[in-house]
Design brief:
alpha/beta, Lyase, Ornithine Decarboxylase, Chain A, domain 1, nine-stranded mixed beta sheet, 25% strand, binds ligand LLP
Length: 485
């Protein structure tokens, strides 16, 4: 029986049962059937492969809808008595297509976009512009016009430059732009911790800090408020912040809320205005491996609500309407990627390389490389962010011993890793299917055609049937932009 490999990272445990599904990683409706094969809503992965090929993103529509509702319910409950509820904007950058926009709308959420292309998807899906927000630190004039054409509910203005451009474009059209100002509250939250330093050194947002003042001694954030109130073509709705992504603890969100409420109260009194809205952004974390333990949405929502309630009371202000922008927390766990296994090889790694006391290097340990038919082109997150994932043998169950494995792609890069460290059954063989859970957010969205690989399709499963919501690319797709001249 293979035990813990010294090559494995400290957090990775040998699973008691390699066939078991660790529930937090998977969409509802995913299970193993009596034959040991992975199914979603009763559909086997081998059937999905036969119909749609691999690699394939397999998304549960009912799970997406359930997570959207759960998030929205948790925040609406927590904030009901403070500001009558919360507007939840699904962050489309995490995964966007017209079907998703329709689900979002049907579940009572709104849509956060970050480019003209994302606006085009929103328009194609037919969501009312009033339910759409536009972000971006470098919006083009064309994107600003498009936002006004679509009568967007809000344009989230990122800089003083942009505020002037939006005001001028709207004025020239005889229009009014509904604007939120994105501020940098000095809370930079990353993964499990937050630090209140070095926050100004980034491209997004209007600084609230005193050391970026203009001649009149105003911070960029205050300058923007003052300027917005002067422009007749701007309707200033309120303030926005987004402190980071894949955050588990509520403290960072709460601290940012407090800072923005202090500022909001100060601006309301100094400029005799009302700022009726406050957006606290997205960033709620999900589980990628068994050691990730995100808090339930209700717990985070309650913690944030408690802070907003007490801060508004202390400041003696009416609480603004709160909005949030979750992406990953809604779509991340709805999806797994299905891959077919190809080449396998085992290397032996010297113990010193893993910090052992085997200076002579005469003890080595095996690591198995399991190549799949996709890779960094369908999931660049391991390469970009050192992100950890997990994987299971999906086409069958196995009683074979666990073997420390590294799931790698088929690209011409040694860094092309899909799952850096995972225990898989040692009898995994070419032709088997592997499933990698948690690939709903920022995988398809970040996918590329590196090495002229066709981007995979996305299949939505609901009520026991599957349909393509984004078809996979064909070789024709890959070639037809090559002008050949
Ligand atoms: N709102 C704003 C203004 C954002 O910039 C983002 C994400 C969100 C909301 C949604 O954040 P979420 O709830 O999905 O964490 N590609 C990286 C993440 C980039 C996040 C960009 N902004 C990754 O794969 O981890």
């Amino acid at each position: 029986m293979t035990t813990d490999s010294p090559l494995a990272p400290a957090w990775l445990e040998v699973p008691a049962d390699l066939n078991a599904l660790h529930e937090p990683l998977w969409a509802g409706g995913v299970a193993r059937n009596g034959d040991g094969e992975l199914t979603i809503d009763g559909l086997t992965v081998s059937e999905l492969q036969r119909q749609y090929g691999t690699p394939l993103f397999v998304l549960s529509e009912s799970d997406f809808r359930a997570r959207a509702r759960a998030f929205s319910d948790a925040f609406n409950d927590a904030f009901a008595d403070i500001c009558g509820g919360v507007d939840v904007y699904y962050a489309g950058k995490s995964f966007l297509c017209t079907s998703v926009v329709r689900w979002v709308e049907e579940e009572g959420l709104r849509l956060d976009t970050a480019s003209g292309g994302e606006l085009a998807v929103a328009a194609r899906a037919g969501i009312p512009g009033a339910d759409v927000a536009l972000h971006g630190n470098n919006k083009s004039d064309g994107e600003i016009h498009r936002a006004l054409d679509m009568q967007l509910g809000r344009i989230v203005v990122d800089s003083l430059d942009e505020l002037e451009r939006v005001a001028t474009i709207a004025a020239n059209r005889g229009d009014t732009a509904r604007v939120m100002l994105r501020l940098t509250p000095g809370v930079h939250a990353h993964t499990h911790e937050f630090i209140a330093t070095a926050h100004e050194d980034q491209k997004f947002g209007l600084s609230m800090a005193g050391d970026t003042t203009d001649q009149a001694g105003l911070s960029a954030a205050e300058e923007a408020v003052a300027a917005a109130t002067r422009h007749e073509s701007i309707e200033l709705l309120g303030l926005h912040c987004h402190i980071g992504s894949q955050i588990f603890e509520p403290d960072g969100f709460a601290l940012a809320a407090e800072k923005l409420l202090d500022f909001l109260a100060a601006m309301q009194s100094k400029y005799s205005i009302v700022l009726p809205e406050l957006d606290l952004g997205g960033g709620y974390g999900i589980a990628y491996t068994p050691v990730d333990t995100p808090r339930p949405a209700a717990e985070i929502a309650q913690a944030m609500a408690a802070v907003v309630r007490s801060k508004c009371a202390a400041l003696g202000i009416t609480a603004p309407r709160i909005s949030i922008e979750p992406g990953r927390a809604i779509v991340g766990s709805t999806t797994f990627t299905l891959y077919e296994v190809g080449t396998l090889k085992t290397v032996r790694v010297d113990a010193p390389a893993v910090g052992g006391d085997n200076a002579a290097g005469d003890v080595t340990y095996p690591r198995r490389y399991v190549s799949v038919d996709g890779g960094m082109s369908d999931n660049p997150r391991p390469v970009l962010y050192d992100a950890d994932y997990s994987a299971i043998l999906a086409s069958r169950s196995s009683d074979a011993a666990p073997q420390l494995s590294r799931v790698v792609g088929k690209h011409c890069e040694s860094g092309d890793i899909v799952v850096r460290d995972v225990y898989l059954p040692e009898d995994v063989a070419a032709g088997d299917l592997l499933a990698v859970p948690g690939t709903g957010a920022y995988c398809w969205a970040l996918s590329s055609n590196y090495n002229y690989l066709a981007r995979p399709g996305v299949v939505a499963v609901s009520d026991g049937s599957a349909r393509l919501i984004v078809r996979g690319e064909t070789e024709e797709d890959l070639l037809n932009r090559d002008m050949g001249v």
